[in-house]
Amino acid sequence: MANKDQQFVTSAVKAVDFPKSNLPRIAFFGRSNVGKSSLINTLMNRKNLARTSSTPGKTQTVNFYLATDNSYQLVDYPGYGYAKLGKKKRAEINQMIRTTVSEIDNLRGIVQLVDGRIPTQPVDLEFEKFLNQVGVPQMIAVTKTDKVKKSEIGKLENRIEKDFGENVEMVEYLLTSTVSKRGITDLKTWISELTNF
Ligand code: GDP
């Protein structure tokens, strides 16, 4: 695959093809369209990161990127729960995620993105539970919070705490936005605490 992205390391569909790494890694998960590419671009201070296409029929790869300061690698998983992909393809992606996450060499943390504009989706809770069992620190990044009215932010926080604290001990969460840049510094700090040692 042609790729001019200097920070692009590799892409793989099978764990056996995941590159080994001396660098710590942080993996990113979320439903398609949750804002994962935008968030990864923001974390990498980039406008256009080569992105996995969510187009039905295209190979859904796990992409490895080197962070701007070369201190860690970002592992970008294909979006789950994309309706247009159809049931079979969706199931394949879910299965791929489930069988490969524990195979990521040097994984230090997991960021799970959930869309702050819509109610909690069952598939997000399923993945929260699964990702929690991987055994590395987990952060819920609530996305697109610039679209949430100030007066609704408290309600959003309560809902996230209630829904995501129901099945597993409450994992950490951050309200984020790539538009207003809310939460970005905090997320960077969380990542650097997990990767700088
Ligand atoms: P992905 O499919 O998870 O990689 O999602 P993208 O990053 O491609 O974003 C999906 C859509 O949500 C695009 O139209 C983005 O412009 C939009 N989006 C992403 N992040 C934000 C955000 O923080 N605020 C707002 N308002 N829109 C966002």
UniProtKB/TrEMBL annotation:
Gene3D superfamilies: P-loop containing nucleotide triphosphate hydrolases. Necessary for normal cell division and for the maintenance of normal septation. Signal peptide: none annotated. This is Probable GTP-binding protein EngB. It comes from the Bacteria. SUPFAM superfamilies: P-loop containing nucleoside triphosphate hydrolases. GO terms for molecular function: GTP binding; metal ion binding. Keywords: Cell cycle, Cell division, GTP-binding, Magnesium, Metal-binding, Nucleotide-binding, Septation. GO terms for biological process: division septum assembly. It comes from Xylocopilactobacillus apis. The keyword Magnesium applies. InterPro entries: G_ENGB_dom, GTP-bd, GTP-bd_ribosome_bio_YsxC, P-loop_NTPase, Small_GTP-bd. Its cofactor is Mg(2+). Belongs to the TRAFAC class TrmE-Era-EngA-EngB-Septin-like GTPase superfamily. EngB GTPase family. Residues 22-197 form the EngB-type G domain.
